[in-house]
Design a protein that fits this description.
about 250 residues; alpha+beta; Structural Genomics Hypothetical 15.5 Kd Protein In mrcA-pckA Intergenic Region, Chain A; Alpha-Beta Plaits; 3 domains; four-stranded antiparallel sheet
Length: about 250
């Protein structure tokens, strides 16, 4: 097996990320630093990344988690907050979250040890549709709904890689599918489907029309649905669901 694929299947990084690790001299084979990504791992080889021995390429697996609000979508949190990894009580495979779901949001989150496929479906060019239910503190007009559908300007906070300084820029969202699920006198629930995932995007889309998201739940990623998985619970994806992800270009 090619070394970059071996590292990716061990859940360390994507194949491209594995190539970078190799070029940086952070990978050893049988105690010797290797800088050629084309190496084929043989039975009995000892593979180390950043000084840690990989136990071998684990069987690739995918999980669907119903994330509660109040959990961070990372493996570890420097502030000591609970992470989604704390919920995986009987998963003995080294999985990681695919994409993100912010601290205050809940719903469907995928986790896997398949770095190559995770990287592919996370690319903006995949246009993978994600479905959300957003409870708002008001009821948008039809004109405001059309603004969301056609794309609306929001503020994005970014970091300059050269200087390390943070800055804000304007960004127009891609067209979205927006429909009313329920409404009352002072609030409503919208179903919103988007094909991108900018940081806190739906909350910022609501702010752009003068409203606030009170609660946000992701119910589907493409054809993979949250279903009846209880909050804080998780399940393995079916083979049909994994094959669907593999078919995403």
């Amino acid at each position: 097996m090619r070394l970059n694929k071996y590292i990716a299947q061990a859940g360390v990084s994507s194949r491209r990320g594995a190539d970078d690790l190799i070029k940086e001299g952070r990978v050893k084979i049988n105690g010797a630093v290797l800088k050629e990504p084309g190496y084929d791992v043989q039975d009995g080889d000892k593979v180390e990344v950043n000084g840690k021995v990989l136990e071998g390429a684990e069987k690739l697996c995918w999980y669907a988690l119903n994330k509660p609000a109040g959990y961070v979508t990372t493996r570890k949190d420097e502030k000591g907050r609970p992470t989604v990894m704390d919920l995986l009580t009987d998963v003995d495979v080294n999985v990681f979250p695919v994409g993100r779901l912010d601290y205050d949001s809940c719903g469907l989150l995928l986790l896997t040890n398949d770095g190559a496929l995770a990287n592919r479906i996370s690319r903006p060019s995949s246009h993978l549709e994600k479905t959300y239910l957003a409870r708002l503190n008001g009821v948008p007009t039809e004109r405001q709904m059309d603004q969301l559908r056609k794309g609306i300007e929001i503020d994005l906070e970014e970091k300059d890689p050269a200087t390390g300084k943070h800055y804000t820029r304007k960004y127009k969202t891609r067209p979205a599918k927006v429909s009313m699920v329920s409404q009352a006198a002072r609030e409503c629930v919208l179903e919103i489907k988007i094909t991108e995932g900018k940081n806190r995007q739906i909350r910022k889309m609501a702010e752009a029309i003068g409203l606030k998201v009170l609660a946000l739940q992701r119910t589907a990623i493409g054809e993979i649905r949250l279903g009846r998985t209880k909050e804080g619970g998780y399940r393995r994806l079916t083979q049909a669901e994994v094959n669907y992800l593999k078919g995403i270009k």
